[in-house]
Design a protein that fits this description.
Length: 96
């Protein structure tokens, strides 16, 4: 009978942290992306709510609903790109 402790036990049990697996950084990256997505959605929702009158005026002067959707979609994509760039810069990328 052999008793393994510490790193030797982790290696025998297949613990990802001891074997050099990248589970923790990928989990943190996924969590960061999820939080960034939620923040973008909240910011865009607040933007649409606060600009209700502006959107109504655009609609009254002849803007099609498709044009408003396209405008809001472009704004959301730009906001998402900025948030993703910021999140990926702060993510704990594995160093080799």
């Amino acid at each position: 009978m052999r008793i393994a402790t510490g790193a030797a036990r982790a290696l025998e049990e297949g613990n990802g942290l001891a074997t050099g697996s990248l589970n923790a950084p990928w989990f943190l990256l996924g969590t960061t992306v999820l939080v960034a997505t939620g923040m973008v959605a909240a910011a865009l929702g607040l933007s649409v709510r606060r600009r209700g009158r502006e959107l109504a005026v655009l609609r009254a002067i002849g803007a099609y609903p498709r044009q408003l959707r396209r405008m809001l979609l472009a704004e959301g994509l730009i906001l998402a790109a900025v948030a993703t760039a910021g999140a990926s810069r702060s993510a704990p990328w594995p160093r080799r």
